[in-house]
Amino acid sequence: MEQSEVVLRAIGILTQSAEWIRAAGGDSGPAAESGAGQIGSLLAEVFPSFTVSPEATPLEAAHAVTEAALPAIMQLIGAFSFVFSELAEVHDSGRTDISSEAVLRDLALRMSRPSGAV
After folding, report:
1. Total count of domains within the chain
2. What is the DSSP string of 46-63?
3. Helix 3-24 to helix 100-112 angle, to the nearest 10 degrees?
4. CA distance from start to end of the chain
5. CA distance 45 to 36
6. Domain range spanning residue 112?
7. Which tens digit of pLDDT belongs to each residue from 39-76?
8. What are 70-109's pLDDT values in tens digits?
9. Cα 109 → chain centroid
10. Taking a C-beta distance cutoff of 8 angstroms, is the pair 35, 13 a contact?
């Protein structure tokens, strides 16, 4: 999965989570379950499938998992960090004319363009 796609998914999760919180009034019900499904879907797409030999020692198994998962972890951290920095920049500038959802929407549009790669 390309980094720009991961960023777009992170934007979607953050945007949707704000809507779930408002709709649920802070109560965790079906909205939280739906969010867990969306997050699980993102993780399934980003993390590679891999196998660990049944003969592997615990240390070898840990190394295999780390080696396989680290690029995906870095990709997710990068995506959420990028989105956070974009939101923080607008917040820190003191702008009150734009909501966080509008910032996320604008960022999603920019990321959807071919030149929007992170």
Report:
1. 1
2. HSPP----TT--HHHHHH
3. 150
4. 13
5. 14
6. 3-116
7. 788 788 888 888 999 999 999 999 999 999 999 999 99
8. 999 999 999 999 999 999 999 999 999 999 999 999 999 9
9. 16
10. yes
